[in-house]
Every structure is written in structure tokens, then in C-alpha cells.
Design brief:
This protein has 406 residues and is α/β, with parallel strands linked by helices. 37% of the residues lie in helices and 17% in strands. It contains 16 helices and 14 strands. It has helices spanning 34-41, 75-82, 87-92, 97-106, 109-124, 141-157, 180-196, 214-226, 243-249, 263-272, 280-285, 294-300, 320-329, 335-341, 344-349, 377-380, and strands spanning 16-21, 24-30, 56-59, 61-63, 128-134, 161-169, 202-207, 233-235, 254-257, 275-278, 304-306, 367-370, 387-392, 395-396. The strands form three sheets. An eight-stranded parallel β-sheet has the order 4-5-6-7-8-9-10-11. Strands 3-12-13-14 form a four-stranded antiparallel β-sheet, with no helix packed on it. A two-stranded antiparallel ribbon has the order 1-2. α5 crosses α6 (141-157) and α9 (243-249) packs parallel to α10 (263-272). The longest helix is centred in the middle third of the chain and has 17 residues, at 141-157. The two termini are 39 Å apart. The relative contact order is 0.15.
Length: 406
């Protein structure tokens, strides 16, 4: 239905109904047409009617960039940054990712899973029905696999869609100190084993001066593509390293962070259809001042997604709703752009653009119900959670799954 004069074209129905069958949406449209639509499709079964009391319904939200599986925390590093230490200084002194690697390797499988389960429940309580979970805190054949298995297990414990991403090219582990090329060679050898076990949906890398060069990342991506796995990239977070252009050239699903993205990278992403994954939580937590080139991305028609980037070092948030507000207040996205960034554009960034992120017939029946009158309230009201119900795969999520702390 068209928006009222002066309102953005949100594409919403002020009075609408949904029909679902199994895990899929059967029909969506105006309430006045719902009875006829049901009679035309019902067959012999009886319909269960759920009255939503005229509340707002959106697609289930999608957190398309998280690092939910890890051990320990890095609260001390937060304090150090406030005392003047930079992210790079902490990393080069043995902190940062390496400290989380040590804690992750020391944690049991059950400890890793239980902690990740609590975090996933916190996201689910805010209407998140699909999430991507990266590895990257094991940095060995054994420990990366443990993290990926924990992520896979979440999809059996909760009614959510989980996409797992190998981020073994996240940092250099201590046993490979000074031998970055050897480590990259090892990662390329490990990928087929994880793929054979069914642990990997995509492959990521960290292209940055404190991580890996474009040439090293390209070696990992070539190994991924040989296995038929899509790629994505942490790019241009601290400097313009040409990572976004590399990602675009290789047909990456997304390039993520992008604070230092230049015009060439924007053009390359626009040509390839690579999604710009913006992570306002990390920008805020690190007190960055270099904004992603929002106007250039918007002008070029690059799809923009938003995610929590939940991780222990640079974005320990578990609120995708807060990221909506930050995307608007810090990056100057409109509320409509922000909501698209955690629904249809986020789905595109996970390779799920034909089944998730929109309320359409034939698509997965994932949706969230909100105590709100207009979708702009989801970005406007920060610091509380108006989600009153979540439906995932056509099933109402029981309250026991909706833990609001982690």
C-alpha cells in the first residue's frame, strides 16, 4: 500500500494479514482479503488464528555479522583504550584478538556453546530470527572447527536460521609468529576439511595492516571459491587497503566496516552488487571519527546492511535495535534505510535474498511483532525492547527462548 503523503515508501500495510503453512508464508495482503485468500488455499485443515491486536509486524530481523562463539571478555582493553592506548597498540602488544584466541582455546566445547546460546537468545528476544556467526577465535584446525560446530549447534537449540562463516584469516596465531604466508597456506589446507564436514557456508578474511594483505586474502578466497563457497571481507576499517575492491572483484557477498572506503571501492561494489555491511557498534565502541562514505554508497546504489558485529573486543553489544538507532544517529541513515539494512539487505549479504528478509508468499515465515504503531519507532526508541512475539519458520517462539540478558 502506498505511504501517506510526506512519509517514506516503507512498503507496509496499515491493516494486513499473513497466512502461513509450515515454514513458509502462504499469502500476505490486506485484512479485507484474508478470508477469501484462506478459503482458496485451505484444503481440509482448520486454520489457527493468532490475533496480533493491530500491532506492527516486520520480517524477522537479520544480524548478518556476528562473532558469537568465543571465550572470555576484554573489559580490561576497553579500560586501556580509555586511558589512551589505540586498538592497534593493544593488538601489537599481544592483546586484542590473540587474547580472545587464548581464552577460546582454553574453554570447553560446552562452555563455548552455552555462552553463545545465551547471546543468541538475547538477539532472538529482539526479533532476530537469522544470524551469521563467524569463527576466527580458534585460529587452528581443531579450534576453528570447535567454534563452527558450536555455531551449527545453535540452529538445533533455537528456531533460528544460522549461517556459519570461516574467519580463520582473522589474525596471526602465536605459533605462526612472523610466518603469515605459512599461516595462510595452512588456512587454505584446512578449508576443504571444514567444508567436507558441512561446517562452512561462507569464508571471510580481515584485510588490514594489522591483519592480512590483499594478496594473502586472495589466496584464501581462491581456495574458498574452488570449493564453491561464497566470500565476504572485513575491509577498510582502519585504512584503505583496497580490500573492498578485491572483495567486489571476487564477487563477495559483502564488504564489512568500510570507514576508509574510497571512490574506487564504492564503484567496484556497485558494479558487483556487493553489499556494504556497516557496523556502527564497533565505530561507536572504538570512538572512531572517520565515517563510512554513506552519501557515495547511496548515490551509487550499493545495498547497505547493518549488523551488531557482536564480539568481545570492539562491539560487545547484543542489541540489533540499538544498531538501528546508531546507524541513523551516527551514520545518518534514514529509519527506512536502517530497517532495510537488517532485513532484505542483510539477507542479501548472507546469500538468502530469495527466501529471507521480506514478508512475501513462498518465503520463510520469519516475523517479529512489535508494540509500535509505525516502523520508524524501531530506530527511534533506543534502550528498550518493544518486541512482543517472534515467529520463526512458522512457529511461535516460546517465551523460554527469549532470554533478554546474556
Amino acid at each position: 500500500m502506498s505511504a501517506a503523503a510526506g512519509e517514506p515508501a516503507w512498503g507496509w500495510l496499515p491493516e494486513g494479514d499473513l497466512l502461513t503453512r509450515g515454514e513458509r508464508i502462504e499469502w500476505v495482503g490486506p485484512s479485507a482479503e484474508a478470508e477469501a485468500a484462506w478459503q482458496a488455499r485451505r484444503g481440509t485443515e482448520e486454520a489457527e488464528v493468532i490475533e496480533l491486536q493491530c500491532r506492527l509486524v516486520t520480517p524477522g530481523l537479520i544480524d548478518a555479522h556476528t562473532h558469537l562463539v568465543y571465550g572470555g571478555d576484554r573489559a580490561r582493553e576497553f579500560e586501556m583504550r580509555l586511558q589512551g592506548a589505540s586498538y592497534e597498540e593493544i593488538a601489537r602488544a599481544g592483546g586484542g584478538i590473540r587474547s580472545t584466541v587464548a581464552a577460546t582455546r582454553a574453554a570447553s566445547d560446552e562452555t563455548l556453546f552455552s555462552a553463545a546460546l545465551a547471546r543468541a537468545r538475547a538477539l532472538l528476544a529482539e526479533g532476530v530470527t537469522t544470524m551469521e556467526i563467524k569463527s576466527g577465535y580458534g585460529l587452528s584446525l581443531e579450534h576453528e572447527a570447535r567454534c563452527l560446530r558450536a555455531a551449527r549447534r545453535l540452529a538445533t537449540a533455537l528456531p533460528i536460521t544460522v549461517r556459519t562463516t570461516s574467519l580463520a584469516a582473522h589474525a596471526l596465531p602465536p605459533e605462526f609468529e612472523g610466518r603469515a604466508d605459512d599461516y595462510i597456506e595452512a588456512v587454505c589446507a584446512w578449508l576443504p576439511q571444514w567444508h567436507a564436514e558441512g561446517l562452512v557456508d561462507a569464508v571471510d578474511g580481515f584485510c588490514e595492516r594489522i591483519a592480512f594483505t590483499p594478496a594473502q586474502v586472495e589466496r584464501v578466497f581462491s581456495a574458498a571459491r574452488a570449493l564453491g563457497l561464497p566470500v565476504k571481507l572485513h575491509a577498510e576499517q582502519l585504512s584503505d587497503s583496497g580490500g573492498a575492491a578485491l572483495a567486489a572483484r571476487l564477487g563477495a557477498l559483502s564488504a564489512d566496516h568500510l570507514e576508509y572506503l574510497g571512490d574506487d571501492g564504492v564503484a567496484a561494489m556497485a558494479a558487483s552488487g556487493t553489499v556494504a555491511m556497516l557496523l556502527p557498534g564497533a565505530y561507536y565502541f572504538l570512538r572512531e571519527t572517520k565515517l563510512p562514505p554513506i552519501a557515495a554508497l547511496r548515490k551509487a546504489g550499493v545495498p547497505i546492511a547493518i549488523a551488531t558485529d557482536h564480539n568481545p573486543g570492539t562491539s560487545p553489544t547484543l542489541s540489533l535495535l540499538l544498531m538501528l538507532n546508531m546507524a541513523c544517529t551516527l551514520f545518518r541513515l534514514t529509519p527506512e534505510e536502517a530497517l532495510a539494512g537488517v532485513t532484505r539487505h542483510a539477507a542479501q549479504a548472507l546469500g538468502l535474498g530469495a527466501s529471507h528478509g521480506q514478508l512475501r508468499a513462498g518465503w520463510r515465515a520469519d516475523f517479529a511483532v512489535w508494540a509500535a504503531e509505525h516502523p520508524n519507532e524501531l530506530a527511534y526508541r533506543f534502550g528498550h525492547n518493544p518486541c512482543t512475539a517472534v515467529v520463526a519458520g512458522g512457529q511461535t517462539v516460546p517465551p523460554s527462548h527469549l532470554h533478554r540478558t546474556a
